[in-house]
Design brief:
Helix 9 (228-241) runs parallel beside helix 10. Mean pLDDT is 90; it is low at 106-110. The protein has ten helices and twelve strands. By secondary structure, it is an alpha/beta fold. The longest helix has 26 residues, at 257-282.
Length: 283
């Protein structure tokens, strides 16, 4: 994979308000880029607004949406998309990504729900993604999501995901933990899923921790340390495709910054190791 195609580089960290002040005062050199949910920052002002501006003026940022509801039958919230466009311009955001899911049905559901894996849903979701891209005047990246039920399933998850990406002509935000969680919960081969992702479209990746409810049931919480099988799956992705930007997500049970940076450093060390091996292999 040609890393020059990427708009951000290295190991990233999801920016959360509880540690914003600390990052402004002593930004860790290990973090190559940051990610924010625009819904949480568009209207922010006062002290936090100034601190946020201080960060976006110094570092690369991407947006990761929570409420666009790509798969919903509700009308697309084009006003929100325009707000995101303005927000990205104000802070020189490199990219906007969203989930291949929906979170509204005649009002917000406050959760990310799975889109039925059907040909009708492919056409519907792809059309909405294309409309968002038209408004933003740039491609967006769509994330593979964790899900716990697949009502009305006509095709496999990876077939559905790839069909939407192809028809929408958008980029991919590959979530390594979601692949692992779904592989355990739904009994499929995580590596096979990984190999089927359109590599040339990968904009960046997420990696996170999860909660083990049972031996064969995992819950995607972003509230724990990343476990070894997920790290290994990231390594396999680098082995197959070469290195791409990868961001640590942590939304709950957020530890002190040094603990977060330990995981950021694991990403960096893996990128350095696999990047060197990939270059030797294809030199």
């Amino acid at each position: 994979m040609d890393t020059t195609q990427h708009l951000v580089h290295g190991a990233g960290l999801g920016l959360r308000r509880p540690f914003l002040s600390q990052l402004v005062e002593t930004p860790p050199k290990e973090v190559g880029f940051y990610e924010v949910a625009p819904e949480n920052w568009i209207t922010i002002g006062g002290k936090f607004g100034k601190q946020f501006r201080a960060m976006t003026e110094r570092f690369d940022f991407v947006c990761h949406g929570l409420s666009l509801s790509i798969g919903s039958t509700d009308p697309l919230d084009e006003k929100f998309v325009l707000d995101v466009k303005q927000f990205m311009a104000e802070h020189q955001m490199k990219l906007y990504s969203e989930h291949l899911s929906y979170c509204s049905k005649e009002g917000h559901l406050y959760d990310l729900m799975p889109i039925p894996f059907t040909s009708e849903a492919v056409a519907h979701a792809a059309a909405r993604i294309r409309r968002v891209q038209d408004i933003l005047e740039q491609k967006i990246a769509i994330e593979n999501v964790s899900y716990y039920a697949a009502p009305g399933q006509e095709m496999a998850e990876i077939e559905f995901f790839n069909a939407v990406i192809e028809e929408a002509d958008c980029d991919v935000l590959i979530d390594i933990n979601n692949i692992y969680v779904n592989s355990v919960n739904h009994g499929y081969d995580a590596e096979a899923f990984l190999k089927a992702v359109p590599a040339q479209r990968i904009a960046y990746a997420h990696i996170a921790g999860h909660y083990q409810e049972d031996e064969d049931f995992l819950v995607d919480t972003h509230g724990a340390a990343i476990i070894d099988p997920v790290w290994k799956l990231l390594g396999k992705a680098y082995e197959i495709y070469g290195v791409f930007p990868t961001l640590l997500e942590r939304d709950f049970n957020i530890p002190a910054i040094p603990e977060l940076i330990k995981e950021v450093n694991i990403i960096s060390s893996m990128q350095n190791s696999w990047g060197t091996q990939y270059e030797k292999q294809y030199a």
